[in-house]
Amino acid sequence: MIDLEDVQWTTEDFNVRFSLSFPGPGIIGIIGPSGGGKSTLLNIVAGFTDPQSGRVRINGNDVTGFAPSERPVSILFQEHNLFAHLDAAKNAALGLKPDLSLDKAEWREVDAALARLGLQGRETHRPAELSGGERQRVALARILLRKKPILLLDEPFSGLGPRLRRDMLEVVRKLQQDLDLTVLMVSHDPDDLKAIASHAVFVADGTASTPQTIDRFFATPLQPRLADYL
Q: pTM for this one?
């Protein structure tokens, strides 16, 4: 469970105020217009953005003020952040040890994570030698090796074609089920949410709706702000 208790964050031209609880484990879709606060919401949960007031709790523990590395959270952005000079195995291994000082058992763990994501035989390939979908799978493998129970996805598949996008959504769905993760997934596409999410939230103008089951979220008639957005 992720709780945002009257969280407020303000800049000169933008204000956000979030008071909601995300159920977990499961996949919660976050949808809304550009500039509405979706990425800010994820960054507050991850610890990259510190609110000026309010509390962030994860499984009842107050993590407000905790650094991102101190939270049980991993985040995957649209840009996969792979290092061009490292092969797939070493890029993934950064999730275990940033200095890559892995022993044999840990390298086997890396190989297993890559295999789980369908990257057998690609371990020695550098990012430039991989497809867009393969690069995102390497980034996911790195996240899996961190062994965090919460996964935040900030439109990581928006640059992929339709088939690869569907494939990656299925990968996320399977990982969530196998590892019992809580996944918050930002997307502009309602079909993404309908494909894999159990709940959804609408974020606009710095506020977020209460999470609803997917069926209720997209039930006719749609909530007015969602209907206007779609």
A: 0.89
